[in-house]
Amino acid sequence: MEVVRFSDLAAKEVINFGNGKCLGHFSGCDLRIDPDTGKIKEVILAGRSGFFSSFFIPWQAIIRVGIDTIIVSIQDKNE
After folding, report:
1. SS3 of 10, please?
2. Which residue from 56, 53, 51, 54 is spatially nearest to 74, judged by alpha carbons?
3. pLDDT band at 60 (very low <50, low <70, confident <90, very high)
4. CA torsion, points 7, 8, 13, 14, in degrees to nearest 10?
5. Whole-model pTM over 0.70
6. In Å, what is the CA distance from 18 to each residue of 33, 38, 39, 78?
């Protein structure tokens, strides 16, 4: 397991595995944390058009963190 700084994640693009779309950059995200366990439940990624196009990505949907990208698997709300 590798330790990665949040600042290193911020520069990465988030790509949806299902359709290859870039959902945005990790720098524009918020985290939903379970107050009872302290675990990250969800990443809220602001879409290109602001809050109303946000993507709610369950933590379990993150497939791989690569050199330049973060690959996720979510259902695109426009499909």
Report:
1. helix
2. 56
3. very high
4. -80
5. yes
6. 26, 29, 26, 12
